[in-house]
Amino acid sequence: MGEKNLAKKKVLFIVYIIFLAYLIMLVIYPFFHELGHLMSAKFFGGKINGMKLAFFQAKAFFQGTFNSFQSAIIHISGFALPFIIWLVFILIVPKKAHPLFEIFKILFSGTVIGSMLAWIVIPIIFEYKKAPVGDDVTRFMEKINVSGFWISGIFLIIFLFSIFLFMKKLGDIKDIFK
């Protein structure tokens, strides 16, 4: 009976850690997403007015006059900065890491890789004039003169590469529960 109770406590602890890590991801990802916009706007000479970070809502505030190329870079930077951070993280953390790192690796990977789906789907929708107004992907597409099918294809390749890399770097899930 004691071992069963201990196993139950371990599982509850893991669930608690996963939930806590997920909540942290809901803050960390939007922060780096908006920071990506701000960094590229600043790089192109924009004035940074701040960032609003709230639960399920984040917004970067900046001003400046940007050409089409610069605007496109600013819009894609919201995806690019978290992706670059994830890429460095996934390459640095060993395949078998502490269970907390494994949980973070799964959640961070899921968040970043999942965010690529918008970059695969929305460019195609954009080609049919049905893309969501104000979305980073839509704004990016409005600034470049490239087919949405090309953008979708490029991001599909990045998406598949990211899944491959994640699977290669993922430790044994059973080890988390030991």
Automatic annotation (TrEMBL):
Transmembrane segments: 12-32, 72-94, 106-126, 146-167
InterPro entries listed in its UniProt record: Peptidase_M50B-like (IPR049500)
The keyword Transmembrane appears for this protein: yes
UniProt-recorded name of the protein: Peptidase M50 domain-containing protein
Key word Transmembrane helix present: yes
Keywords: Membrane, Transmembrane, Transmembrane helix
Source organism per UniProt: Anoxybacter fermentans
Pfam families found in the cross-reference section: Peptidase_M50B
